[in-house]
Target: Acyltransferase 3 domain-containing protein
Amino acid sequence: MMRGVERGPERQPDRRGELDAVRALVVVGLVLFHAALVFDARDDFYVKNAETTELTTFVVAPVVVCAMPLLFAIAGIGAWHSLRSRGPGGFVRERLLRIGVPLLVALVLLLPVPQFLRARAEGTWTGSYLAFWLRFFDVRFQPGDVPFVLDGEHFETGHLWFLVLLLTWALVLAALVRLVPDDVARRARGRLARAVGARGAVLAPAVVVGVVCAAHELEEGFAAWSRWGYLLFFLGGFVLASDARFRSAVRRDAALAGLVGLGAFAVGMVLFLGPAGEVDAFTGREAGAVVFRFLYGVAGWCWVVGLLGLLDRWGARRRTAAAAPAAEVALGATSTSRGAAVAVRPWRGRAWAYLGAAVLPLYVLHQPVVVAVAYPVVGWELPAPAKYVVIVVASLGALLAVYDLLVRRTRVTRVLLGMRA
Model:
């Protein structure tokens, strides 16, 4: 018997295409971001250009505050619907197949590549790739860093920390759903849903996120966020999807959330450039660093709520606009402009469907591809901006080619990279 979440129908007709779109945009943005790290003076990226800059930190700061938290929140929204249709057991099986399998495949086939190229670039490894591959898996158990319990001289989870955390939090959620009685879950959800009827109440969890960030360090290896903060965003997305009143509150308070987040971010950046910047703002225990992390967490939650609300409004307008021409055609309208609008939408739909299905494979593949492309390019006699453009364009082209030609066309490769068979 499933507990904590009422069982619903298998089919979910109201799929939110705007969330698929933003997931695709974030993954494309990660290519731009990781290509920029090649030229960043602060980050210890796998391959570095001789000429670096500190500008990257300030350019990407607003994106870092909300991009990965938004992905975790969207994953939480999806988890609600998956749990309703499959139950905890089916949800766990589906997550192990869709996340666990590509994680293991990438761990064996892809993750050693960036570390190998780093060692070659630094001159610390001159042997073969096969010898390095074997050394990569020389690991030891470290139970104190859950869920990253394996460590080694070269071993790492790399950019797949996202999948490790996502799978871990999904298993935690399934256990909670199994343990919490249905009536308790319904009552708690009902109270929360009534509470968000008040203007701005949906922003209250920002305080909890801020406290967690202040108490726990922001981990640069996890896109400058706390792993426990990501858990809150994942659970937050799950709760927001559980009642239509939450969705209405998010739409209603989207602008307010954006403004509050902007204020928290602005004050936080003042601290980052001032007292918090004089110490380690991400890990320090001085007052300036703690307040900075609190505001960072507040800004993150507010901006995620704001983005979800604005995306929902945009998606609603698109669905309304798509329905109107179809209704006109059904009534016999023959306007050329209306017919063109009807004709163009299927193409858009196919494009978004293509990118939506590609999100997980592209995420898994993107960082090894960026590093492999950057490895020779940094040695070219070109200005840094030109190198950056070459790395981005070549990486995106290679990613799409690998995905389209080697991943999506066979059942085996689709399953291995987390797609539906």
Observations:
- The first helix runs from residue 17 to 37.
- The CA atoms of residues 324 and 338 lie 9 Å apart.
